[in-house]
Amino acid sequence: MSTGTLAAAPLRDAVTGDPARLRRALGAFATGVTVVTVGGAAPRGMTANSFTSVSLDPALILFCVGNDAVMNGVLAEAETFAVSVLGAGQEDVARHFASRSRPPGAAQFDAVDWLPGPVAGAPLIAGAAAHFECARWRAYDGGDHTVHLGRVLALEELPGREPLVFHGGAFQGLSPLPSGERR
């Protein structure tokens, strides 16, 4: 048994100069796909797969937005927003709200089925696996992204609705294991 002192290895940036490698490695983690929306006079929507729960009490969620995205300015001014967790078969919706060529304002919602959120007033994507209506809680610096936290005001779920999944740079569905089988 060694009685020497353990020393931490010096920190180094293993991905400097190779963001494509980092993106590929991060793509090994499967995520759900959401559309974040803000209502009001100039509504806005944006596809985001950096969505997760933060806290059950208070009920908090988070998502990240690139600092150069128009949505950052919109969220900074909005008191409320919504998140629609897309379901299988809604890849076209995800692609629409990821496109920088979609029209501004309310016209960007003409291409999708949606309904107004009863609490936050932001558009909710019809047929989504879940909806969250939120109040803006906090925003934090996250390097080239901003981390947005929201306090959940209302939610709706469609039990049994299979989610849309993003993995390895492509949209996918789930393939559940046969009952009782483990990997």
Give a quick precis of the structure.
This protein is mainly β. It contains three helices and twelve strands, in the order αβββββαβαββββββ.
H and E order: HEEEEEHEHEEEEEE
- Give the % helix: 10-25%
Low-confidence stretches: none
Radius of gyration over C-alpha positions, nearest whole angstrom: 19 Å
**What shape does the CA trace take?**
globular
Mean pLDDT: 88
User: How do the strands of the widest beta sheet line up side by side?
Assistant: 3-2-6-9-10-5-4
End-to-end Cα distance, whole Å, is: 36 Å
Features:
mainly beta; seven-stranded antiparallel β-sheet; three-stranded antiparallel β-sheet; 183 residues; 13% helix; globular
Can you walk through the features of this model?
With 183 residues, this protein is mainly β. The protein is built from 3 helices and 12 strands; from the N terminus they run αβββββαβαββββββ. The strands form 3 sheets. It has a 7-stranded antiparallel beta sheet with strand order 3-2-6-9-10-5-4, sandwiched between helices. It is globular and about 65 Å long.
Secondary-structure map with pairings?
Elements: H1 19-26, E1 31-32, E2 34-38, E3 44-48, E4 52-56, E5 59-66, H2 70-77, E6 80-85, H3 91-98, E7 114-116, E8 123-125, E9 130-142, E10 145-157, E11 165-167, E12 170-172
Antiparallel strand pairs: 1-11, 2-3, 2-6, 4-5, 5-10, 6-9, 7-8, 9-10, 11-12
